[in-house]
Design goal:
It comes from Simiduia agarivorans (strain DSM 21679 / JCM 13881 / BCRC 17597 / SA1). InterPro entries: Pyridox_Oxase_N, Split_barrel_FMN-bd. Residues 8-131 form the Pyridoxamine 5'-phosphate oxidase N-terminal domain. This protein has 185 residues and is of the alpha+beta class. It has a single domain, classed as Electron Transport, Fmn-binding Protein, Chain A (Pnp Oxidase, Chain A, Roll). The chain contains five helices and eight strands. It is globular, with a radius of gyration of 17 Å. The termini are far apart. The model has no long low-confidence stretch (mean pLDDT 96).
């Protein structure tokens, strides 16, 4: 039976710190619902009511476009080893680009990456835990390195060109504001 909380507990914060994979769900009022798997060293729990995650450059930019239209976001964690658990954090998110106030303070929470595209700050309104007994066991082997290698080869200029070509609009044509809020001279 699931339980709900108004904030993360210490035990839940510890569980999150141990996870190698999380899922982010966003949706505008209309159009496509997006669920994205995320990994690597890209998530921090700042306190019981706030999670920050680093969005690295990728082929789509749905989360940014959706949050600009409707700031609701869900982040889900699953136990793939140990005791079964599914943990969801629900709330309102803000997207920060390189040119935004707050970027400089928060980007330092994460390892440096040429591919750092946005930061998302989730203000938690509700947390839900559920049993997770149908989630299979999986063994973590290692993080993939292809994205980091690709972004390093691109360099800052190449990444900015990629954003211009591939990251300005969502699947539904919603603006991501990446150009006006991120590009540097």
């Amino acid at each position: 039976m699931g339980k709900t909380y108004s904030a993360l507990t210490e035990q839940q914060i510890q569980f999150i710190a141990e996870q190698k994979l999380f899922f982010v769900a966003t949706a505008a009022d209309t159009g496509t619902v997006n669920v994205s798997p995320k990994g690597g060293d890209s998530l921090r729990v700042r306190n019981a009511n706030e999670i920050v995650w680093l969005n690295l450059t990728g082929s789509g930019n749905e989360s940014a476009a959706h949050v600009l239209k409707n700031p609701r976001m869900t982040i889900m964690f699953c136990a793939f080893s140990g005791a079964p658990l599914i943990l969801r954090a629900y709330g309102q998110a803000a997207v920060l680009h390189r040119g935004d106030n707050g970027w400089g303070e928060l980007i330092g929470l994460f390892p440096a990456s040429v591919g750092a595209r946005q930061l998302f700050v989730l203000s938690i309104e509700q947390v839900q835990s559920s049993c997770g007994t149908a989630v299979p066991f999986y063994d973590y082997v290692e993080d993939r390195t292809q994205l980091a290698q690709w972004t390093e080869r691109q360099g800052s200029e190449g990444i900015q060109t990629y954003w211009q070509k591939k990251n300005q609009k969502s699947l539904d044509g919603f603006d991501t504001e990446i150009i006006e809020r991120s590009l540097t001279d």
